[in-house]
Amino acid sequence: MSEPRSVLITGGNRGIGRAIAEAFIAAGDNVAVTTRSGGAPEGALEIKADITDPAAVDAAFAAAEAAHGPVEVLVANAGITSDTLLLRMSDEDWSSVVDTNLTGSFRLARRAAKGMLRLKRGRIVFVGSVVGLLGSPGQVNYAASKAGLVGMARSLARELGSRSITANVVAPGYVDTDMTAVLTDEQKEGIRSQVPLGRYADPAEVAGAVLWLASPSASYVTGAVIPVDGGLGMGH
């Protein structure tokens, strides 16, 4: 058994983030999760934080470091949607989604890189979306924010690679979570019909890809986009 690592996961109280936290806990790592509303999984250090607030990001890292040592694995998962067609999309719809999903992830990566550069190792995993590369009507803001993670990860991969720090994106397709529970049966059926595997993902299937990217087996994988989408986005 390898030494437990210090892992920080944002949005770790539900859905994909919770499944990721549970997977790292089961692997024996020391896990801290940020949440806005509480409810972290058992065995995780819960940190209340809003990643759109730079001071809160700093405080979250300070709390994780005090408990578990320098963060060796960052999983930037926290994200929001505010879906509407382009002509109805307000500046607030745009900026709230981009500020949380993209700028929030930038702040997290910047803060994580400080400690990782000193350690001369680290894993940064961004939770993107198939929508970032495939596009989706009504999600101009969300798709742009998730596509931005790819450019960010690839730039970080080049910038930090010489210090054994990897940066990758996991791009889930449609996952069975609270975020997809709001869709109508008709919408759900329409989505399933486009997915070659004919079903939604279980959050644990996304967590498996994140866990692998953080493992020794993936030490030579960086700047990659790993789709976990049942084949929905093939070729993108």
TrEMBL record:
<dbReference type="GO" id="GO:0016616">
    <property type="term" value="F:oxidoreductase activity, acting on the CH-OH group of donors, NAD or NADP as acceptor"/>
</dbReference>
<comment type="similarity">
    <text>Belongs to the short-chain dehydrogenases/reductases (SDR) family.</text>
</comment>
<dbReference type="InterPro" id="IPR020904">
    <property type="entry name" value="Sc_DH/Rdtase_CS"/>
</dbReference>
<dbReference type="Pfam" id="PF13561">
    <property type="entry name" value="adh_short_C2"/>
</dbReference>
<keyword id="KW-0560">Oxidoreductase</keyword>
<dbReference type="InterPro" id="IPR002347">
    <property type="entry name" value="SDR_fam"/>
</dbReference>
<feature type="domain" description="Ketoreductase">
    <location>
        <begin position="5"/>
        <end position="178"/>
    </location>
</feature>
<dbReference type="InterPro" id="IPR057326">
    <property type="entry name" value="KR_dom"/>
</dbReference>
<protein>
    <submittedName>
        <fullName>SDR family oxidoreductase</fullName>
    </submittedName>
</protein>
<dbReference type="InterPro" id="IPR036291">
    <property type="entry name" value="NAD(P)-bd_dom_sf"/>
</dbReference>
